[in-house]
Amino acid sequence: QVQLVESGGGLVQPGGSLRLSCAASGFIFRITVITWYRQAPGKERDLVARVSTDGITSYADSVKGRFTISRDNAKNTAYLQMSSLKPEDTAVYYCGTRWNSKDYWGQGTQVTVSS
Hints:
Blueprint: E1 3-7, E2 10-12, E3 18-25, E4 34-39, E5 46-51, E6 57-59, E7 67-72, E8 77-82, E9 91-99, E10 102-105, E11 109-113
Parallel strand pairs: 2-11
Antiparallel strand pairs: 1-3, 3-8, 4-5, 4-9, 5-6, 7-8, 9-10, 9-11
């Protein structure tokens, strides 16, 4: 079955960096769009970044210039490199994809930006 497993979250100080990973299985990774979302307490889940099947990327305005999304089709893994982190980046981060007309997300990984 389709599985997405996020990892790499943690506690980081403002201005710090983290790299999140999204390990995928159960579908043909290289032909799907991968999206990172985040959800802060009491807020809706928001799109953070997206990478197409041919590597074209797009970002939410709030993370442009600070976050970089990438994918390694050989490893069935997507990444989100986050730099210059701010307290407002604190959230649970999820990766998602759409396969056979159905949306899938992982369990999420917590990112906390605090001094």
